[in-house]
From TrEMBL:
NCBIfam families: transpos_IS110 (NF033542). Residues 211-288 form the Transposase IS116/IS110/IS902 C-terminal domain. Residues 5-146 form the Transposase IS110-like N-terminal domain. This is Transposase. GO terms for molecular function: DNA binding; transposase activity. It holds the Pfam family Transposase_20. It comes from Mesorhizobium sangaii.
Amino acid sequence: MKQYIGLDVSLKETAISIRQDGKRIWRGKCASDPQLLAAVIRKRAPYAWRVVFETGPLSVWFYHALTAEGLPVICIDARHAKAALDMAANKTDANDADGLAHLAEVGFYREVRVKGFDSMLIRTLITARRQLLKMRLQISNQIRGLRKTFGLVVPKGAGSVFERNVHDLLQGEAKLARIVVPMLRAWSDIRYQIAELSKQLAAMALEDQHCRLLMSVPGVGTVTATAFAAAVEDPANFRNSRAVGAWVGLTPRRYQSGEVDNDGHISRRGDNQLRGLLYEAAAVILNRSTDTSTLRTWALELKERLGFKRAAVALARKLAVIMHAMLRTGELFDSHGGTPAAA
């Protein structure tokens, strides 16, 4: 006797549907708390075979908490599930739970690897730092813009130079200073917090053998190395290194139907943040690096033929492949070892 459970998770309540032998035998709602959900499932479905829910903001917490409760939990791709759930005449939480339970029963789903809490902690640190960087830039631009209204143009400069220039231009502008100085203090505080988070990130990278290994690649720094190591977790999670490029969303889409067979833009699936970091690393190699590695030579030749953007995307995908291979073998980056195409 096998019972299949679908969970439609929201912040407050979770809709539950239980199927057995091709029929729904119970459905209801419960507060979105893994312990309460586990108690309901044990009571209503003592022979639970699969417990399925979609990816979402609470998926990492639910997956690990329900797994700790001994339940056979499976997290599935929300995009894949949507195609099946849209078949219902009415969009409700209860119907979504029914659809997920049906997918669990027929096995028509794509399971998603759920990251561990340690990896999510690193990702959270990188995300928080990136957000503060955006806030710092936004405030500095606001300060520059406000000053232009009064004919006060802040000279080029960042960091302490920017702060000093702003203070210098506020001399004799008491009314304007009462507006700008609080913003400048907020900018300074954010700058300090960014430095603190950067220190934490650098300490994590130095303590992690995988991060130190990845930072031997030209253009790959602390942020990109830690983000990649946290996303991949175990190299064995991928059947081969080439699969990483598609997983990050750096391979072209394809539309084929009859006589039509077109390649489109990259899929942009997967981790947006990691994809952006790999692209930035590729841009550094193409524009700022001075090394003479085989990888850069290949990328520069591609840039001459296809242009900067396409070459950067191709190089970003190549970096993902090479970095995964390095994690698998434990070898440092060899700037003149083999051709990148064979990676």
